Amino acid sequence: MKNLKNILFLFCLLTTFISNGQIAAEHLTCEMTENPLAVQKQPRLSWQLVSKEFNTSQIGYQILVASSEEKLKNDDGNMWNSGRVNSSKNLHILYGGSPLKPETKYFWKVKVWNQKGKISKWSKTASFRIAPDESDLNPIWIGAITKADSYLPEGRSYHSATYNREKKQAIINASDSLSRRSIMLRKSFTISKEIKEAVVYISGLGHYELTLNGKKIGNSEFAPLWTDYDKTVNYNTYELSADELQNGENVIGVLLGNGMYNTLAERYTKFFVSFGPPTLFFKMKVVYKDGSEEIIKSDQSWKYSKSPITYNSIFGGEDYNANLEQKRWNSKGFNDSNWKSIVVQEAPKGVLRAQTAPPITIQKRYDVKEVKELKPNFYVFNMGQNLSGFPTIKVKGKKGQTVRVWVGEGLNEDGTIGQGRSGKPYYYDYTLKGDRVEEWQPKFSYYGFQYVQIENINYKKKKDKNLPTLVDLKSNFIYNSAGEAGTFESSNTIFNKTHELINNSIKSNFQSVFTDCPQREKLGWLEEIHLNGPGLMFNYNLESYIPATMQNIADGQRENGLIPTIVPEYVVFGGDFTDSPEWGVTGVILPWMYYEYYGDASLLEKYYPVMKKYVDYLGTKATNHIVSHGLGDWYDYGTHAAGYSKNSPIALSATSHYFYGASLVAKAAKLLNKTEDIQKYETLTADIKTAFNKEFFNPQTKSYGTNSQFSNAVPVYMDIVEPQYKAAVMQNLLADIKAKGDRLTTGDVGNRYLFQALAQNGENETMYKMNNHYDAPGYGFQIKFGLTTLTEQWDPRKGNSWNHFMMGQIEEWFYQSLAGIVPDNKKPGFKHFFIQPEVLGDMTFVKATYKSIYGDIASAWEKKEGKLILKVEIPVNTSATIKLPVPKNTEIKINGKIARNLELGSGKYTIECEI
After folding, report:
1. pTM
2. Which whole-number Å values give the CA distances from 107 to 20, 34, 241, 439, 544, in the listed order?
3. Contact 97, 73 (CB under 8 A)
4. Which of 734, 655, 654 is nearest to 691 (CA)?
5. Cα(611)–Cα(613) distance, rounded to whole angstroms?
6. CA quadruple 620, 623, 624, 629: dihedral positive or negative?
7. Considering only CA atoms, which of 847, 843, 852, 842 is closest in space to residue 820?
8. Are 429 and 404 in contact (CB under 8 A)?
9. Rounded to whole angstroms, how far apart are CA atoms 110 and 91?
10. Contact criterion met (CB below 8 Å) for 281 and 141
11. Which stretch of DSSP H or E encloses residue 402?
12. How confident is the model at residue 206 (pLDDT cuts 50, 70, 90)?
């Protein structure tokens, strides 16, 4: 008995030793995703570390990977037992065990050792599933009509927004209407044994909604994400729970819509492109507990019927006739004898790939904020927030009555919905079945809107018995479900509201791709990604989104190396609107930026040929290393009309981005040890720099180009200016800003370079003055108008879109300068970083947080009673250097103790000094 007590005492002591909060592994991910359902055969595993102690780091880890949860629970890593690995690395650990099988789920956990040699408990169990081999998918595509019989337009030259009504209608009329119709497909199957697991692989183009026994599977909208369907076709993977399948008959139901796969439609369209009529690939693998398997897939046994969605267009809206509903069509016992047999269709040309980027979902819902009855039974509703999405209506009325719902960003002078700038006509028609209160929302179309207009209705109360009554109205804000990574707040009202405006616009355009606007174009213009890149990465979790963006860029690259301005390139605009270096260079900058923020060189490795090929392409367009084409500093500010760069030479802009691209290829070659390329691209970079300075630098005036803000800021930021002239060029830049009343003259391209040239060269007070006002150009001017999203032009009365994030480059300054969270490029992914806040103007506090891949980083400073109080949080297994805006001999206290060493390990700290 005494021995038993001693054993129990030692066990309790050991448990305390292991689990008293020394260190723990949490947030396990595979390929930067929690429990992914479709990864490749040699995935990378990562985890974050937490500890309540200071200066905590990892010195070793052990990973177990098992073929079953039961085995893992018993510490049997039958697929991989790494043993103790002495390493501080906790990110991107390459799987090193037995070969993994396609379409198979594996379970894993990890434990770690801290710097004192103390061991953690095992982490919670995580999982990953290996994607099928393409040959195993063996897709059969089915639908209502073949591509050959559809007579849809071929090619990408249909800029339909410029067509007259007759030309547009002639193209539409030449096609078969069935090729544009939403259809329902169903398949009945029987389950007669106990199920171990069931997994679905599906791609419904343009978009689909999947149901099993009448219940929607997943919560995504507009799945799968858009791609160039001639190059890549995404499929989605779903694991089904045992209770979603029932013994006996089960029914798969799929609803198909057009999306970007097939944009041919009446009403407003920006362009016509068609890869074919709506089409479905489906495969479900059912594994039974007795070890047997069954495959249910799209084939000739499926049936289809036209859906109640009588019109659907990503650009024009959606119509729904509730009288065409077929009750329980996607459930068992339904009589489908009047349904037609599907036809096997021509497969899309693109490679079928697992969608690894997060889905789009409904993220927020808004109720009516204000309602106006402009005339009897004519209502305009203000939903309070401009957004990307669609409304949900609840309505009651007679069978056959139709409610038309108009949506828009702004109002005309008479108070009605205005779509003149955003693409018209766009609306939704809902035809009632006359059965109590009916609720409806679109499935295959979204728009940018804040206002909703509905005519010929009662609202809430039944005033006119001959009209339907709108019982309730909501707006649904849809955007990518990647999740938010950062927060920012300050004592400055303009900056807080600016942050809000920009992020509402980012969210509105955070769709399958980063779009320019959520209404009239919905196109993936590339420049905004790299120019807003740091702000995007501080605000959102883009670890699994950017790889999909790079796949789209690679798919879009032409044989000659050109990366077009928009990706996917559904329409070819031609000229500078197809080929502009400031846009195309995104394919070079983005993999490098991804490496800096996430410490992951995989995109540099995978897309190095894309990067190199694009820089080589620019070389073919250069004369003596000077590139002269493109849009330049698009929408630069002045008295001129917005558009092409007017303040600065286009060649200066194009050549500087050629230099930028070449310098990053040289850096990538060095990092990846591409020995044959290092000298080539380092020499090219030097040659472009020499040519640039010879062509654009004036040694007499010490200025570049036209001496515009863009002309001088770009060579300063990109380090093209020779060191002996840098101070003089900066003085010219500052003189122009002052001459313009502390206002900017840069545009879409130049803003980032201007902001960062100032921020990185000790001119943050100038940045503060330039942005802390309510005039145009400036964010405050838009705030003054009461807007809730950032607009395309500084003056919202001009331009088209009221929901553009391209001018949102100040986010980088908010996080890196005001809050002072700065990555260390020598230790990427925030393995080491700097906290170096700027205390500016009359600001009294700034606080920001950032969910780095290592964990939470926080920086919050406050000016109080002559003191600067800075509170910081540093994740486990990282370190930070604190730099304060005070003289060197200032006494500094950290957590109440005088300190001279401002190199800090993990933990939460309060730092105080006089200011």
Report:
1. 0.97
2. 26, 12, 17, 42, 20
3. no
4. 655
5. 6
6. negative
7. 847
8. yes
9. 12
10. yes
11. strand 402-408
12. very high
Q: Report residue 348: phi and psi, to 5°.
A: -55, 150
For residue 563, give Cα distances in angstroms to 413, 604, 651. Answer: 42, 16, 18
Average pLDDT (359-383) is 98
pLDDT at 441 over 70: yes
Determine which helix (DSSP H) or strand (DSSP E) holds 70, and give its type and residue range. Answer: helix 69-73
Helices 764-771/723-739 angle, 10° precision: 20
pLDDT at 735: 98
> Could you tell me which residues are beta bridge partners of residue 892?
913
| Cα distance between residue 777 and residue 541, in whole Å | 30
The mean per-residue pLDDT over the stretch 220-230 comes to: 98
Tokens of 906: 């993990």
Q: What is the pLDDT of residues 710-727, one digit of tens each?
A: 999 999 999 999 999 999
CA triple 645-646-647, angle to 5 deg:
105
Using alpha carbons, list the distances in angstroms from residue 837 to 445, 562, 817, 909.
Answer: 44, 40, 6, 15
Using the predicted structure, report yes or no on whether residue 12 has a pLDDT greater than 60.
Answer: no
Mean pLDDT, residues 758-780: 97
Contact (Cβ atoms closer than 8 angstroms) between residue 78 and residue 100: no
Closest of 222, 26, 305 to residue 875, by C-alpha: 26
Among 782, 779, 706, CA closest to 744: 779
Q: 3-class SS at 534? A: helix
Q: What are the beta bridge partners of residue 894? A: 897, 911
Residue 880 φ then ψ, to 5°: -145, 150
- pLDDT of 603-651, one tens digit each? 999 999 999 999 999 999 999 999 999 999 999 999 999 999 999 999 9
Do the beta carbons of residue 715 and residue 656 sit within 8 Å?
yes
Integer Cα distance of 777 and 147 in angstroms: 50
What is the distance between the alpha carbons of residues 239 and 105, in angstroms, rounded to a whole number? Answer: 10
Residue 10 clears pLDDT 60, i.e. is over it: no
Position 430 scores a pLDDT of 98
- What is the C-alpha R_g of the chain? 29
Name the β-bridge partners of 857.
850
Distance between alpha carbon 896 and the CA centroid of its chain, in Å? 42
In which order are the strands placed within the sheet that holds 340-341? 215-216, 207-212, 248-257, 183-191, 303-306, 340-341
- Can you tell me the distance from the alpha carbon of 380 to that of 839, in angstroms, rounded to the nearest whole number? 45
Tell me which amino acid residue 136 is. Answer: D
For the record, the structure tokens of 377 come out as: 């039974």
- Say if residue 17's pLDDT is above 60: no
**Residues 538, 506: Cα–Cα separation, whole Å:** 12
**φ and ψ at residue 162, rounded to 5 degrees:** -95, 0
* Number of CB atoms found within 10 A of residue 685's CB: 22
In tens, the pLDDT along 476-496 reads 999 999 999 999 999 999 999
Q: What percent of the chain has pLDDT over 90?
A: 96
Euclidean distance between CA atoms 356 and 30, whole angstroms: 11
Is residue 184 within a helix (H) or strand (E), and if so which, with residue range?
Answer: strand 183-191
Find out whether 182 and 319 touch, Cβ atoms under 8 Å.
Answer: no
Distances (CA, A) of 84 to 24, 58, 74, 88, 111: 16, 12, 18, 12, 9
Question: Treating both helix axes as pointing N-terminal to C-terminal, what angle do 750-759 and 764-771 enclose, rounded to 10 degrees?
Answer: 130
Residue 210: phi and psi, rounded to 5, are -105, 135
H or E stretch at 198: strand 195-205
Cβ 60 vs Cβ 84: under 8 Å: yes
pLDDT, position 613: 98
Q: Is the dihedral of CA 879, 885, 889, 895 positive or negative?
A: negative
Q: Please, what is the average pLDDT of the chain?
A: 96
User: What's the CA gap between 226 and 555, in Å, rounded?
Assistant: 12
- Say how far apart CA 650 and CA 643 lie, in whole Å: 12
Note if the bond before 828 is cis, omega within 30 degrees: no
According to DSSP, residue 412 is labeled -
Instruction: Give the three-state DSSP class for 15.
Output: helix
